[in-house]
Structures are given as C-alpha cells and as structure tokens.
Structure to design on (193 residues):
C-alpha cells in the first residue's frame, strides 16, 4: 500500500511540475538597485514581464552626468532606466516625452519629492525635477550653462494588452517613480535650501 501511495504522490508531483512549467511567471531574482539607487523589488516587479531568468546591465559614467541601466528578461531587454542632467525644463522637453512614449499623459506626483513635471505612458514614463548637482559632480554642460534639472526616463519594452493590464502598468510606473525619486534626489542633488 505504501508503494502505491508513494507512486501516486510522485505522479502528482510530476504533473504539477510539468503544468507549472507552461507559464514561467517571474521566477527570477530582481536587482536590489537600479543605476546605483536602492530599488524595492515590490515596486520593480510590476514593470517586468514573465520569464525564467533576468540579469542586470549597467552602462554608467563615473561623473554623474548620465546613467543607463537595464533589466534583461530571457535575453530580451525589458526595462531601460535612464538618468540624465539637463540645463533646464521647457514645454519642448515635455513635448519630447509625448514623442518618445506611447500614449503619454501627465500625472501629479505630489506628496513626495517635488517634481517639475511627470507623466506615465503605455511603455514607461518621465520625471523632471529641479536638481543642483552635489559638490564633486559635473556642475555645467559647458561654461555658463549650469545643470539645473534631472530627468528620470523609464522605457518598458515588453507589450501588455488590454485596458486592465495597461492600467496596472501605469500604476506600477507611478509607484516605481514615487519609491525611486527620494534615493535619486539624495544621490544626485544638493540639498534644497
């Protein structure tokens, strides 16, 4: 009797294992930081597709003028996060976000880090904040053109379909921005005041 029970349990275990392999889920570990800023996995996970493996890649300058990092899921870039300094914010800057993203729309990020402008899109989002560079960081792009702003750009390269999935994605991008911005400001910007 014990052999039959063990055999049946073994068959059930194999069936469960085989069925769970049909849909990979997010069975990969997530980076603890993105572009040098601590990242909470709970805020990063909603931005990434299902897959079996993920790796983190970073192409960052050492001078705090521009950083680019990526999460690659199953050998395809799934998320690009870009941080860059700018000499100002203008309507043209935000207009470029409309061109760079699919269905971009402005949002309010009140209650946390003060931002000049922010928006989410079907494929990511953008945030502009006033930011005087920390001592030791680049202070100007060319003489007499000081850096005054910081831009956080998020590009999601996996597709989602359906109104509910897009609403979850927009909410995920906004939640990520809210959690990421305090660390970004601390690492890149001189204290206000």
């Amino acid at each position: 009797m014990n052999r039959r029970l063990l055999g049946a349990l073994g068959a059930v275990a194999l069936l469960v294992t085989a069925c769970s392999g049909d849909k990979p889920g997010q069975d990969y570990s997530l980076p603890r930081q993105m572009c040098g800023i601590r990242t909470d996995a709970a805020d990063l996970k909603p931005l990434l597709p299902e897959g079996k493996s993920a790796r983190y890649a970073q192409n960052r300058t050492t001078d705090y003028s521009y950083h680019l990092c990526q999460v690659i899921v199953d050998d395809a870039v799934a998320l690009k996060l870009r941080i860059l300094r700018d000499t100002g914010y203008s309507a043209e800057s935000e207009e470029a976000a409309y061109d760079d993203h699919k269905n971009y729309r402005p949002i309010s990020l009140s209650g946390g880090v003060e931002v000049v402008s922010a928006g989410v899109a079907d494929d990511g989002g953008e945030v502009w904040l006033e930011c005087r560079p920390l001592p030791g960081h680049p202070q100007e792009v060319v003489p007499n053109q000081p850096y005054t702003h910081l831009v956080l750009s998020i590009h999601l390269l996996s597709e989602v379909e359906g109104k509910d999935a897009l609403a979850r994605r927009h909410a995920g991008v906004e939640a990520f921005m809210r959690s990421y911005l305090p660390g970004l400001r601390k690492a890149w910007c001189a204290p206000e005041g």
Q: What stands out?
A: The radius of gyration is 21 Å.
